[in-house]
Amino acid sequence: MMSHAGDRGEMVYADSHAHLDHYSDADVDAMLARAEAAGVTLVLTVGHDASSSHRAAVLAARHASIEAAAGLHPLWVRLEALDGQLTALRRLLDSGLCPSAVGEIGLDGSASAPDFALQLRAFAAQLTLAESFDLPVVVHAARAHREAAAVLRDMREPRAIIHYFDGAEDDLGRYLELGCLISFGRLILKPGREGLRSLASLVPLDRLLVETDTYPLPGRTTEPRDVVDVVRALAETRGEPPEETAAATTGNLRRVLRLDD
Known about the structure:
The chain is globular and about 50 Å long. It has one domain: Metal-dependent hydrolases (TIM Barrel). It contains 9 helices and 8 strands. The longest helix has 18 residues. The N terminus is likely disordered. The termini are close together. By secondary structure, the chain is α/β, with parallel strands linked by helices. Helix 1 links the parallel strand 1 and strand 2.
């Protein structure tokens, strides 16, 4: 693993959520080089099904600055294939590739999402897997924060990252009560998101994470180095030095992934 933040007195950053499995090896190499130049020393790349999770784990094995999460995204849950999907995930978690987290898992209340009861079944099964492997989870909750928090409450000791938080104050309170870490993305940079920025100020520093949610879309150029902009915006919003925000968010990700154990 890479050395901890600040070994050379420099500001270092960690991106708690990216989908580098969507890119070629050459593109990943180039993004990591730019990230390293910007001070980004750790990227958690997150799968959405067995294939993408395997690719994420391979990238993590290849690059010291990458850790992998393996999981079944709620939008990829399929009734006719769920048992096989979960079996493939268990095999990957039990393999020599050893992902550091289970994710991206969770619930999605969008109209076009799979049947909600099926999502609940997949979410609960993967939380059980995470507990059996003693791994943290990366949670997708879209239009389903109350429901996601209710499921997490059934875990013995939730070690959960709430990915790309965009909920209300009540949602944030439920997650914080459960001990979850809250990850903020580039939404806080956008005009008109003063409400979200105010909520970011309510998160204790030891529960705060930052991310880019890097994945390819037409006209989208986001990559892990852009997490620096998120840290700067958070620091300004919270009224704290950016060095403090960067060190805390990097340390928090390392802690939840148990990289320093």
